[in-house]
Each structure stands twice: as C-alpha cells, then as structure tokens.
Amino acid sequence: MDGFTGGFRHPFLGLDHMAAMVAVGLWGALLGAPALWALPLIFPLIMALGGVAGLAGVEVPGIERGIAGSAVVLGVVVALAMRAPLWFAGTMVGVFALFHGFAHGRELPAGADPAGFFSGFVIATGLLHLTGVGFGLISRWRVGDIAVRTVGGAIALIGAAFLLTAP
Amino acid sequence: MITTVEALALGFVNALAIPAQGLALVGLALVAARDGPRQRRVAAIFLALGLCAGLSAIAAGTGETPAALLLAICAIASGVIAAMAIRSPASVVYGLAVVTGVLIGLDSPPRVFSLRLAVAILVATGIGAVAFFILVAEVLAATRGRWRDIGMRIAGSWIAASAILALAARTLR
User: Distance from B97 to chain A by nearest Cα, in Å?
Assistant: First the structure.
C-alpha cells in the first residue's frame, strides 16, 4: 500500500499539476456531454503514454513550462467559457496530458510497486478531474457560472506564476 | 508465526492488497458487468477454474513467473474494452477470465514456511478473488443509468492507464 499512497499523494505535490487537472474537469462541465466525461476519460490514457516516454528516459525540453502552460491555457478557456468541438478539446487536453504524464513517469520512486504507485496516481488525478466536473456543473446557474469562470481565472494566474519561474 | 485464521484472512484479501491483481479483477468485472447474469456466472466459473490452475501450479512448486507483467496486459485489455463501452463476445470475456485467474494464481506464492498455512493462504486467495469479482460485477450490473455507464467508462480508462504505466515501469526500468 506504500506505493499506492505515495502515488495518490503525488498529484497534490504540485499546485500547477493540480490546477490543470481541476481545469480539465471544469472545462468538460462547461462544454457538457460528451466532453463532460470524454475529457476525464481521454486524459489518463494519453497521460499514460506520456508516462511511458518519461519512464523510457526520453528527454523533452521545457516540460515544466509545458505543465505550467497547460494550467494557463486551460484556466483561460474556463474563464472565457470557451466553446469548442469535442475533437479540438480532446486534442488540446491530450497534448497537455502528454506533458503531465511525461513529468510523472520520471518520478516513480525507486523501490515503489509500479502498479500500486500508478493506480494511486491515476485515481488521484481522476478524482481531481471529477472535482472540477462537480464544481463546473454549478455553471448552469448565473452565480455558479461566475464562480466557475473566476476559478478558471485563478487557475490561469497560478499557471502564469509557475511559468515565470519554470526552468 | 501467524495462525491459520490469519493466513485465511491474508489470502482472502490478497487480490485487494496486490494492486496488479486488483486492477485486473476490477477490469474484468467492468467488462462482465455489461453481460447478462448467466454470462457473468460463467465468467466467474472460468475465473475460478483459472485460479485453480494457477494456484495449483504454485502449490506444485512453480518458481518466478512474469505473471505480474501479463496481469498488466490483461488489465489494459479489459480497461480499454470498458472505456470504449464495448460489449465483448462471450468467448472474449471467458478467455479473459480464465487467463486472469491463472495469472493471479501464479502471482500469489505464499511466503510462509508451514505447508498448512500455505494451503490456507492459497485456498483463501482463490475464494477471495472470485468473491471480489462477483461483488463488483453484480453491484455494477444491478445499477442502471447514464451516470453508471459514464462511471464504468472512466473507471476503465483509469485501469488501462494505471496498467500501461505499471507495465512500462516493469519493462523499461
């Protein structure tokens, strides 16, 4: 269970990671079905492919900038309540998922059980998405819409702060 | 020195305590939940048969096997099937069930010195795995609605993603 709890904690160790994960759920909720469930479904799978590259030792420059950038972009689309076809939203989320997966794939602790670590990690990531979806559903009311878009703006600002300090 | 009751308890929760086995079992349950009650019963029987074979092989002294790796492949397959909401042919579900059972058995060597305790752990492992599968599959099959379908698809993607990463970690590191 050490691997599982370590993996579960992992997404919460980076505020930019967390913010981007919640933003995926928020945007899915704003776009409505099928994006509402398709984005949380697509993200983990593509993230896993990025993780494979990270585990394989592939060198990709600017990963931390990419992660911070994902928070900025996703935060902005939520703040603007931007509408997009599913193929576009899925592609954009998929590209960001590669960055996140790549970063996390490199961070498997030595000695940790891989299945435990990654199942904890994926579940935590998914729960962040679902948190975003759950909160995003309040956008059907006017006050809720303002609240969701404000959170999107906050996420964009968090991403921008990380972008300024990213290596 | 653990008691027989403790050995039985350890074996019963084995599939939950070993993430690779848990992923494969939940993935199988997600796939089976879309089938009718007869097909689910048959899948449980095939799982039990596979477990008997795998656990018997361990009892006969089979050494290290790549069972954990192959379990990840089973979990990926079932996770993708669940994520895509595919209703698989019965042969696929039954095949997945028996293979998952064999692999869980092979992945469960009891780490005790007493033969009595080892047998207790192996028997309880088989019972626990089948019980867990039946519980998850029947609960999912009993629920209905759009959100249940969405939840199953998302759970399938989580299982597949976790298993892809676990497989990559075992083979690339």
Answer: 20
